[in-house]
Amino acid sequence: MRKFLVVGCGGSGAKTLAYMMDQLKALIREVEPGRDTLPKAWQFVSIDAPLAAEDGPSGLANVEQAGGRYIGIGSHQSYRTFDAAVSAELARGDGLKDIATWAPRVPNAIELPISAGAAQRRTLGRMLTLPKLEKIREELRKALEDMNTSDANVELNELNRKIQGFSSDKSESDPTILVVSSMAGGSGASMFLDVCRVLAGLPNAKPEQTAVFLLTPEVFDSLPKDAMSGAWPNALAMFGEVFATQTGAAAAADASLYHALGIATADQGSTFARLFPIGSRMGEERARFGREGSPSEIYRGLGRALSGLVYSEQASADFVQYDLGNAGAPDAKRSYLGWADNEKLKWTGLPWGSMGYAQLSMGRDKYKEYAAQRIARASFDQLLRGHIDPRNHSTGEEQLRERLAERLPDSMNRMKIHPQLVTSAATTDIIRSWYEVLFHAELEAAVSESQAVLRSKIPTPVEGQKGQEWADEVDSVMGSSYLSTELRRVMQRSAYSAVYRWADFITDSMLAEAEEELSRLGIPYVEKMLSELDVIVKDKLQPGTEQFILRHQGLDPAARPADADQALHPVTGKKRIHNADAVVEQLLSCYSPQLRTAMVVELARSLSPVLEDFRFGVLRRLRDELDRAHKDVRAADKAKESTLDLADVATDEPAAWPRPHDEKVSDRFRGSVNEIVITEVDNFPADFEAQLLEAVSGEDANVTDLAEATSRVSRTIIKGEWETTDAVKAPRDTLARPADEVPGGNRAGWASKHLRRHPENTGESRESSNAVFKARIRPKDLLERARMWVVRPGESFERFISADLRSYMTQDEMLSDAEYEQRIARLRSEFAKALSLSRPLAAVDATMVQAVHGQGVTYRYSFSEIPFKDQRVAAELESTLSSGKIEGQSRTKFDNALRDSTNIQRIDIFGSYPNYSPIVFSSLLPQIAKEFKASHNRFDFWNLRRTHTLDAALPLSIDERKALVGGWLLGVATGRILITNQGTTDAAAHVYGRLPAHRGSAERAEGWYHFPSPMLTGPGEMRNEVDWMPAVLESILLAYANSHERDRSGAPGASLHPYWALRALFDDSPEKASNVDGGLRHPAVNTLAHFLRTGEWPAERNGTRGTSIAERAGMVEEHLARALRTAEMLAPVDNTGFPSASTVDKSWAHPTSRERASKTPYYRDFAADVVEMANLLHGLLDEAQRVAEQPESTSSIPTGFSSAQTDNDDEFSGFGGGLL
Fold this sequence. Notes:
The protein is an alpha/beta fold. The chain has four domains: 4-327, Tubulin/FtsZ, GTPase domain (Rossmann fold), CATH 3.40.50; 415-630, no CATH class; 817-839 and 845-912, no CATH class; 956-1188, no CATH class. The strands form five sheets. Strands 3-2-1-4-5-6 form a six-stranded parallel beta sheet, sandwiched between helices. A four-stranded mixed beta sheet has the order 10-9-12-11, with helices on both faces. It has a three-stranded antiparallel beta sheet with strand order 13-14-15. Helix 11 packs across helix 22.
């Protein structure tokens, strides 16, 4: 994989990037489970009008939330205030001239809110963008820097190693840049060209590695009509501006505007390598993509395609080499589009690309999620309703009481709480019995130690000593205060130590019991069990203990036992002592009962405050945590499914999880429209049940029932306990941290304030702390555990899930010949289906392709890695590429993609046409023409759509634009331009001439050709009569929109003929400018010479002008001088080049106020071209006169109207006005 910078412009770009990022995260999780971030070498930037990023689509995170950047360009100001600030900034840098002919003419009349967007008006969108260009530039620079840090390089290289299985260093590589936007909207459609221009000026951002993906308005056809308002006219404006950028015609205009803004990085060439239109219909058949062809389906489909491109080294390498490179463009007739010399403007950089995408996969990743979700669902249901037996007709509450009555005594017993306390009162005898059983070992040890203390304090008799004498000594010890103190010290120490250990035991045993019962009977039962435990502690153990202590108040462990006399009787009187040991043992035996009782009392005294602390510091906290978890689980149970159409099928919403008795598998698991899976989704339930039984019966052969197997696995998931050879072990942390993470104490970390001192080290103490519980029983927890369980190495689920494409198609002794043949047939069929679905998401017109490129429509395909090298199935799949409509290059790419890797589970297929001329795409132009014809408000159709001056907004090369300007000057000067119905809104323009003839073709006869009528800018919207030329040239956009219509012969492109004829007046070379530098006569000379010789004036029936060559030459020179003077007033040009010109005022060329700029004629945008062409034509007049004086051998073409206009300082007045 390589470095990528992905920029989304506008809402469509943001949504596509959200799907793309989600899909890439899903792919990365396959090699790095649990990871939720993308590598830093992949940078994502979303730019849109809203000041804060909008929510992502289909419940997904938006770009910023997913780890990318967001740049908001909107404003809370009213538009008039905003516009005034932008205008003031531009005025300071002489930039008002650069927006004069496209910015809103009356900013104060704009009342559309701009805080949330450009309201489908591209003009407003670019005005919003301009003051934020520096901010955009800085954020993009940061993104490029972030992907080139040493950490980013190391991360990408390591990720490549994990995915590919071998190392590859991408540290020094330049990023591939993907820009995604829409042609239809106001914000993204207006800013993307500026974004590309800014990018082109940044280090490490190379235009030749930049691809632009634009969604055509066709994508939004399913939306209500009012939501589509302006979509098609926006696309028409963008068509012209995009092509002007590709040809370099827009570079000068952008450079001038950027200079005014203080941005010196505007690139002077094309700013991207290839543009890819994305529609909703595939191939020349125009098959609709997806089920509805909705925008969401297209966003997701494109997001998946781009993620597949990013994730596959093979696919991205092919993309850069073939799609962005110059290898994939067939020759074209440049008379249709891109008229220019190939040496000056390479054709290979002008065609548009195309992209389709489909994926063929095992589908086991979806099955893995299906299995995990189904197990999680069973566990979820067990938690909520595990106490209910559906065969029992009692209510849930009644069944809960029955379960408690059955199971609670055993649970208390396992926690070493007297079972009788469940149903009986806490009598003194029960309390004593509980202590004696609970602390049996500690009690016995303490009594033994106390007896040892007694033994050490009893005087040692001397053999033969008088018994009475020794008995008196013993009596002095019994009941003594020092003996009592010593015995109490022993008992207190022992009791403290016992209670210290008990605190850990009761916490851990309660946790174990709660986790076990959760897995068996669910949350309601455990809540009730803990409630009962709370009652037992509060109402029985605590008061019972206090009562026991009170009952034995004043008990002295050293007190003389009542039967001490009997024990001493053998040595009383005058008897001599001969067997003292027996007497001592008898005496100690007399002490035993009271020592035992005293020890129990000390245990009670130590435990009593700890019980209170346990209730509030442990038990209540666990109950509270379970209550919170129960609320979350209940809420999840009631929630409806909301997360749809995710890049993968992962969701932690139980409502979406599959259940055992679902009628069919949810469509979520079928993937997106362009995803073909080999594993039948409808077989998921049967596969799951077979593998579940196999997994459970492997541990217990007696389990043969699916319900029992499901119950067993549910308990396993809830408890988080299972055996595995995986490095990732079972969590075992359902309610608290696992035991193996506890260095000492208990799992909950509880340290009672009464047990701070360590019993075995008097110098060591600890801080008291309440218990900490985390109930990992929420849907997300269950799903994570289920995922871990199904991928345990070597188990039935893992073996099925981990099967890759190569192993699936490898025949071994377990696979019969018949089954192997079935697999080959199925794979071949699914591969062919994937090819069909990966046809480009942009329809083309086959007739137009034939006309422009001289060939039929063909497709080509590239592939991610294909793991069938040296396998028979490779040839089977390659045979599907043998269609005559599939380029042979596709088979080469197929062969290059073959690998013998064993870890590939999917093949990404990218379909495209050869890089075709933009004019052939039927997803765009024909619908624009239809929309224009149907429009009832032509002004609104075009108002605020354009974002560049006209010289930078038309689908013309620089040479062709100048040739058209030259043709217009000639046409007006020689009577070849006619305006009918002049002075009315129905006025229309026409040109008299002939179409240029290709080599070997017969020359066509002259005739009238009609420019579009109505035009985009009609007579009512012109700012001056001189605007006829810019209005006619601007409407070449409509000619292109109508270019798919056929003429009487069935050939397309007739709508372009007026412009071809106009161009031919100046240069009749059909596909490029004539090579006048090589010695050829300039074609314009023939046009001029014909007029000078004949004086023919086609604009009038049988009309002529002048009586001599010299007189006519003077007429032409006068017209050129007038045009030149008008142009000089508007163009930043300092000299005209021939004597009849004079210095004129430049205030219109450099307006200093927005009001004056708004009145600047559209003619301004071609003024520099007029200056150049008028000079050129003036220079050809002498040669034309010489030719005219010779006998006529060829025919050509050319003269004008004018009407006087008074000067007005507030309005532009040309050199007398009129057509120029």
